[in-house]
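Running low. Any example?
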Amino acid sequence: MRVSVRPRRGPAAALAVTVVALATTILFTPTSAAQDTTAQDTAAQDTPAQDSTTQDSTANVPLSFAEMGLGGSVALTGQRGRASVTLPVPDGTSPVALRSTLEVPAGIERGWLDVTHDDRFVGRVDLGGGVPTVPVVVPLTGVPVIGRSVSLDLSTTIVPTMGSCLNSRDSSIVRLQDPVVDYAGAPTSPTTVADFLPPVLRTVTLVLPDEPTADQATAALTLAAAVVDRYGSQPVRTVVRRTSDRIGAPADGPFDRTVVVAPGADAEISLEASSDPAAPPALIVSGDGPALLDQVALVGGEAVELAVADRVVAGPLTVPPVLTADSMTLGDMGLGPQTQRGSGEVTVTIPVDQTRLGRAGSTMRVHVLGTYTPLSTGVAGNIHVAVGDRDLDVRAADGSGVVDTWVDVPAESVERVTPVDVTLRTTGNGDACSTGGALTLTIDSGTTVTTSGGTPDTQGFASVPQSLMPTVDVALAQQTFANTARAITVLTGLQRLSARPLIPTVVPFDDVALSAEPAVVVAPDGLSAFGPAAEEVRLPLGTTGTTVLTLQGGADGARDTEGVQAVSDTRVTVDSTAPFASLQVLRQNGRTLVVATSTAAAQLDEMLAWLTDDARRWDGLRGDVLFGTASREPVSLSSVRDAVAPSAVASGSTAPAAVWSILVFGAVALVVGLVAAALVYVRSHGRPDDGPSSTDGP
């Protein structure tokens, strides 16, 4: 990539030209998956983001751990608990205090929490005894800020009361609830492209042309996914706005940013000062065709650190292919060695995230490697490997202190993120609490995860986004601003579930219909908008007009000669004009499709808005259909199509036919309930028929 940096004022010649070879310029550093909050642009959605007002320069700036992407609490487990946190520090500020409430387990005679930085003592909090909660205020003034962040080590020491035993994981947890960090000063506005994105981001607003081209839509989708990936578990809100609606829009707060995707023959990235001198500038990304995508790649890549002026130009970018892997070590996945300390019982959880592998699988093997404190004479114990409540391996712990075992995770236990728990338990050496002394368990970074079997047809939402990797096509029924905004909503929601960035490209639907590549499809007026090619796509939940709902795979009660229950479609005829919307996941031609469709565009917008209102909803989707209708909260359904076919069983599905039947009948019952409620609503409110006839999904 060539990055040219030009000052806004000065000689016409370029200030510098730097050639940088990058392996992953288009990608941000991968972070753990979390949930998204995305808003589409309508007249009613131009309200400024909550808590985004400009801070008074004389006041402290409070930021919660949750909005910094550090979670709502920090758990320190064992009589000597340990945890580390890295606090982002906005430019122009410095941390002055850590505030929280400590939850202390019962049976504590005394204890304390120590906060250190690079082995330098920062503060101590006395836990007391017999008090369930303790307020915490730890001064942080003077702690060095390195690279826009501060690292803190937290450690607890607890002493049980006479006769109390704290040798289990749950009985020895000290938890910091809802921590908040106070920062002194006021966040400063960026003056270079390199510093445009702050360490903490609340809202990013994408401004697009009123009628974006396919390249502009691709640029916006790529940028939205890259921003969500960069900030990981920070709940960044994404707003999409038309260029024509930009005038009069509320000014950004110190933790908000606006990016404008603008047409123009001259490709460049520049800062544009806000009309409000207290607000940060906007970032203007301009260009046409591949040159525009090069500018977006610079904003989302490592080379942005070279953009040390308020106007830069990115040269052509060659991106190496993103490869998937059947096997990967924890080190390859960026997890590294993981260690826990305690007494009596110590657990290390390995979060096997399929998005880190860049592919989907139905079966999994894990080669667990690690070390533990060798047990002394008279102390017995075991190494226990489990996924949830399912035991995978139990073996005696001995004096070697080595963990080296293979475990197979059953297909029904393989999820998007499969937590594999490795536990060291001891039976003690005759002391009152049978703790057996202090224990340390470490799972090495060489622990290897192997997946196979591909994407099960019946996994639905559990199979995404890993089955959309490494690249995903995006097809819009019409190339409009509204459909682009809807696609951004869907893609950023999926990105929240991924530890690696999704790489989208807007393509014609005919290309999607004939392709074997995964795709996201947005059709607010039904798949019929795509013409004859849409006939190849059979949705799990389809409609005929606005009156017939068809759920694939309904059990009809008949059985074949081997006693296997037959599968047929279940139809529900609705005497209602209420619009329907759905988000569906299906397998076709060996690839995954995610389809957002409806009988009325407004209903689809309402359902997508519901999805993004709560950061937990994307991760909570089950089955393969999210179904929504007027005045009802959307529900997840499962068509379980082809679930009892021999091929599905051969590919790793072990669920009995009875389970599929229960799911199907449950889904039908939900549909009937929704329809009945919608009918009551329509008859009482007199809603007009605003849904066009179609032969495809809602």
Observations:
- The first strand starts at residue 2 and ends at 5.
- Helices lie at 214-231, 289-299, 354-357, 481-495, 509-514, 601-613, 646-650, 657-685.
